Amino acid sequence: MELLLHLGRLAQSDTTPAMVLSPAQWTVLRYLENANPTSRTPSAFAKFHGTTRGTASQTIRGLIKHGYLTQSRAARDGRSKQLDLTEKAKTMRRNDPFEAVTRAANDLPSAARRQLAETLQRMLAHVAREKNGQAFGNCTNCAHMECVGHRPESDDSYHCAISQSLLDVADLTRLCVNFQQTKAAFSPPAAT
Fold this sequence. Notes:
Blueprint: H1 2-12, H2 23-34, H3 42-49, H4 53-65, E1 69-73, E2 81-85, H5 87-93, H6 99-106, H7 110-130, E3 145-147, E4 158-160, E5 165-166
Antiparallel strand pairs: 1-2, 3-4, 4-5
């Protein structure tokens, strides 16, 4: 298991100009790029990162100050603040030092990649339960996702029982703060 820690440290040991960001700041950018709109909030990121809201907010404030994030009122809940990546952040993400790990995983045969993903998901869920944390996932295997329409390729076919909202097909594979694991995974249609 020390290998997992070493892999993460090695990926973050990059000394290129991309490392003007701290590992925590990189985690914010990665998270927001992969989270659905409901989950792009400071408190959702804090849960994902396993940190306090204060620590998460401090990291986020630095990214806003340096032009990597914008903050606006969430459309669904005017009390929440929704975070979005700026073009500067999207450009910076192309130089993410952790992409070396992604490339290494993509070099694995597809069966090994699938098995690795399933194993890591099970390990994540186990540790989250043990630490009273939260395992994140997406709508494709979430207990709260309901298929309500008759046209699977249509955006009006999917509903979240927690947020009481229709789900965009493009968001079905994004990280969600309201995720609750089910046994069976659902294969969404390709996003258009």
